[in-house]
Amino acid sequence: MKSLAELQAIKDRMKSKIVLREGTGEIRVVVGMATCGIAAGARPVLNAFVEEINAANLYEKVTVSQTGCIGFCQLEPIVEVFEAGKEKITYIKMTPDKVKEVVEKHLKGGNVVTEYTVAGAN
Amino acid sequence: MKELSLNILDITENSVKAKATLVEILLIENSDTLTITIKDNGTGMTDEVLEHVRNPFYTTRTTRKVGMGIPLFQFAAEQTGGNVTIMSKHFSAFPDDHGTTVTALFYKKHIDFTPLGDVVSTVTTLIQGHPNVDFLYEHKIGDNFVKLDTRELRAVLDDVPLDTFEILIWIKENLEEQYNSI
């Protein structure tokens, strides 16, 4: 059973590197989680980002947060990527599979996956 | 919405936007019915807003948190023969005891009953997005129950944030183990 004692152990492990984990926040990934986003599948998309970013050891650099309606409900799930000094990238109609690619190529490799962006869809 | 757990996520986002510091998500299930209650200590709604909250076309800039959420939840309940009740106390009239409680009743044997779905994922998503809000999640199924209270976790964790990846995994696995042992 996942006990509170186990939680305590995680805490003790985390305490030592908490400064590290709060990270530099160079990149901010924001997932639209209003009614429109949730209905279109934003929940698994968000969870895929959380998992993939951790698996790729990018948690120092990338934070994942949630926001309300971005305003293009028909293009949900929408994900915005903010990076200091760069233009905002907006990914549309996201899926957990697309998330894997975005984490690998964009967040890790620095190359925007244009075909999934709002610009690429035009 | 494909799963009621997505409606729960959606309605609870309203509570968080209404500045709740504690949201209680209570599910009571027996062989015929499922009752979902989402109770918060947020700002609450005035009688005027409360009157219109079920109308999907009622939305103004100041009440933008309203919208399709409640109507969709209500639709899901009513199509099983159930209903949604909303009680709210606005902070202007109830400075010490404000908040909103949304209760939905579903008849599970109705052909149009939407399955609950991945409710564990809803709980972890809420905690990931709002690590400073407390959530009490309780699901009673007959004589058994599943429970998670972030206040208890916080007491163990001190200032380690709840949205730490390892903590979220612990929460997910803890809930899954509780469900599997029922």
Describe how the helices and strands are arranged.
The complex is a heterodimer of chains A (122) and B (182).
Chain A: H1 4-16, H2 18-22, E1 27-32, H3 35-40, H4 42-55, E2 62-67, E3 79-83, E4 89-91, H5 96-108
Chain B: H1 4-17, E1 22-29, E2 33-40, H2 47-52, H3 69-78, E3 83-89, E4 99-107, H4 119-129, E5 134-141, E6 144-149, H5 150-157, H6 165-180
Parallel strand pairs in B: 1-5
Antiparallel strand pairs in B: 1-2, 2-4, 3-4, 5-6
Can you characterise this structure?
The complex is a heterodimer of chains A (122) and B (182). Chain A has 122 residues and is α+β, with helices and mostly antiparallel strands. Chain A has a single domain (22-116), classed as Glutaredoxin, CATH 3.40.30.10. Chain A is built from 5 helices and 4 strands; from the N terminus they run ααβααβββα. Chain A has helices spanning 4-16, 18-22, 35-40, 42-55, 96-108, and strands spanning 27-32, 62-67, 79-83, 89-91. Chain A has a 4-stranded mixed beta sheet with strand order 2-1-3-4. In chain A, β3 (79-83) and β4 form a beta hairpin. Chain A is globular, with a radius of gyration of 16 Å. Chain B is an alpha+beta fold and 182 residues long. Chain B contains 6 helices and 6 strands; from the N terminus they run αββααββαββαα. Chain B has a 6-stranded mixed beta sheet with strand order 3-4-2-1-5-6. In chain B, a hairpin with a 2-residue loop joins β5 (134-141) and β6. In chain B, α1 (4-17) packs antiparallel against α3 (69-78), α1 packs parallel to α4 and α4 (119-129) runs antiparallel to α6 (165-180). The longest helix of chain B has 16 residues, at 165-180. Chain B is globular. The chains are: A alpha+beta (122), B alpha+beta (182).
